[in-house]
Amino acid sequence: MLHRLRRTLGVLLGLTLSATALAQTDTWPNRAITIIGGFPNGAGTDLYARKLGEALANVLGVSIVVDSKTGAGGNLASDFVARAQPDGYTFLMATAGTHAINAALYKKLTFDVERDFTHIAILGDVPNVLLINTKKHPTIKICADLLTLMRANPGKLNYGSTGNGASTHLSAAQFASAAKVDIVHVPYRGQGPAMTALLAGDVDMFFNQSAPAIASIKGGLNIGLAVTTPTSLEALPNVPPMAQACDLPGFESSTWYGLLAPAKLPAAITTKMSAAVKQVISTPAFRTWLVETQGITPALDPSPAAFAKIHHADVAKWAEIVRISGAQVD
Q: What are phi and psi for residue 84, nearest 5 degrees?
């Protein structure tokens, strides 16, 4: 009798909790939503999150707060969101770095990059651009010139990066492996110091992310020899893809930005948030901002399912590139 009563109470409690969750889903969102980023204010992810948040606020009718929790290559922010309540009020501005590269780069993470998150939308493809300081190398006009110089001087040329294991490091390591050249890695703490080193002539080249690369090329500070995507960027039509420019068939090395939520987010909220994001990034004004100022190619299919598929494949892809580079962070 007592066992039957307990079971009945358990069923009733379950039904009550289900009804409460359903009611919360039906009224979502009814308060401010927070998007957590893992990198400092002014970083590419931060700029995107703020631009996205501003537009989403209009679509969803609530405030969108963008907050940065920096440290450990974005892992602090990821851990925070993985542990957050899956109620639709905490999201993560994720990257291929935080959710594919870091899985291989760090010996131990406090979260699983796939299982502990709900995919909302992939926000775009983010390439790197091979930059050269023309004052230091005035004779280099195309990638073939750079390759000739590197092959004649093995181990004597170097490249900057935004840190050990960052995409700016791994793109260069992938390039060196594909081109069979010996170049030295010089890591810096972020994009600013790495670009300063390039402009000062302390390094010979820098595979910088598209947004700052576009600004430096258009500002006449550097020249772009190649972009790590299969086709040229709309913002840099005269910078050829690396596969063509450097005679490296099939070469591609770009990352992505994506929006994630904690695991077990209710399907109705996932669907509603995904649709809102798609509505925003599909507008001509937002697309123009992405393409012309950030060098980001919007995803043809930003859906959760498409995002999950790309994410899963990238975990294996970047694990191999990390292995080639020898990069590791304790």
A: -70, 160
